Amino acid sequence: MKKQLLDNSIIQLEELIESYNQPKYRAKQLYAWLLLGKDYSEMSNLPKDFLLELQAEYTSKSVSILKKQVSKDGTKKYLFQLQDGATVESVFLPNKYGNTICVSSQVGCKFDCKFCASALAGFSRNCSAGEILSQLIYVNVDNGGTIQKRAIGNIVLMGSGEPLDNFDNIVKFLQLVVDERGLNFSNRNISVSTCGLVDKIKQLANLNLGITLSISLHATTDESRQQIMPIAKVYSIKQVVEAAKYYFEKTGRRVAFEYIMIKGLNTNYLDATRLAEISKQLSSHVNLIPLNWVTERSLQGITKQEARRFCDRLNSLGVSATIRRTQGDDIDGACGQLRNKLELKY
Question: Which of the 8 DSSP states describes residue 229?
Fold first, then answer.
């Protein structure tokens, strides 16, 4: 398999270019084409002989679009194929306040949360930084975006996989997308989600990258959390909350607690009280998420009226809480529904 050009920063590309006896400024030209999703044949301002040499060792395209589905609400789900034939999904979420992309960080998932489809086909491997970046590039271009005028304003690493289990590649991806010589995203427009890998949360905090941390809490007692999240047998809620407090203290960034509302498990009066106690230990926001249907899972969601009452209860207890708008559920593109090609029924 060829090496990926998009795994490199602009500085690394400059070093690579010089190793081919080309002037350093060629790196900027090359990177501009890569950020537009172009192949070697389209790089009109670069010497053909140089491109042939480069092509022998490096691929200009880390992924390719196999399938695109468009929801009735405008959400778009993309199925990407990687170089080795593996597949991942990404979702483009249109919003009048700024479009968002949800990208995948792993092929499959190890953590098997019982409300999520991502682990149903097992775990294959991590995505490289370039493969994650490529998802963003192709969705941006497909929706009319350029480098200077992006079609995407926000990035969430909430697709297939556990981002913090792919720590080094995630950090490199974050460094690539905020680079002002690249797509120049603001740190504050990027969210990384985790099921609660305590040691990695602290490691991320120590880097102080300025991004939002979203923690999948989904329950207010260890017993109920263990029913739906195997990772809860490793880290208690207390440990997860302590890591969240550490993140806030080191970065000054408000932490988001993700909370999927599940019938009979986590939305009673006591749950609201306990969730308020948890969230008020630090500067945080609670994202209440309607449970999205996954055929192979047996969990059930609550009604819109029940969700509204639960949210109102939290608000009355002084909690910053909102109900996340469901997008793309008719194409299995909503929260918890992403998976890989082996499980898709197109």
Answer: -
What the block records as the tokens of 217 is 């809490």
Structure tokens at 117: 């489809």
Q: Which residues pair with 78 in a beta bridge?
A: 68, 90
Report which of 138, 131, 140, 119 is spatially closest to residue 83, judged by C-alpha positions: 131
Q: Write out the two tokens for 233.
A: 């047998």
Q: Are 162 and 107 in contact (CB under 8 A)?
A: no
Tokens 């270019």 belong to residue: 17
Catalytically active residues, by annotation = 89, 335
Residue 21: C-alpha distances to residues 2, 50, 76 (Å): 21, 9, 42
* Cα 151 to Cα 98, 148, 241, distances in angstroms: 8, 10, 35
Specify whether the CB–CB gap between 261 and 267 falls below 8 A. Answer: yes
CA distances from 53 to 22, 29, 61 (A): 12, 16, 16
Q: In whole angstroms, what is the distance from residue 155 CA to residue 192 CA?
A: 9
Q: How many CB atoms lie within 10 A of CB 214?
A: 20
Sign of the four-CA dihedral 258, 260, 265, 267: positive
**The token pair that represents 271 in the structure block:** 């749950």
Residues 6 or more apart whose CB falls under 8 angstroms from that of 319 comprise 275, 276, 279, 280, 286
pLDDT tens, the chain, 346 aa long: 899 999 999 999 999 999 999 999 999 999 999 999 999 999 999 999 999 999 999 999 999 999 999 999 999 999 999 999 999 999 999 998 899 999 999 999 999 999 887 878 889 999 999 999 999 999 999 999 999 999 999 999 999 999 999 999 999 999 999 999 999 999 999 999 999 999 999 999 999 999 999 999 999 999 999 999 999 999 999 999 999 999 999 999 999 999 999 999 999 999 999 999 999 999 999 999 998 766 566 788 899 999 999 999 999 999 999 998 877 555 544 465 456 644 443 3
Cα–Cα distance measured from residue 167 to residue 170, given in angstroms and rounded to the nearest whole number: 5
E-assigned strands of 136-280?
154-157, 190-194, 212-216, 255-261
Answer whether 266's CB lies under 8 Å from 224's CB: yes
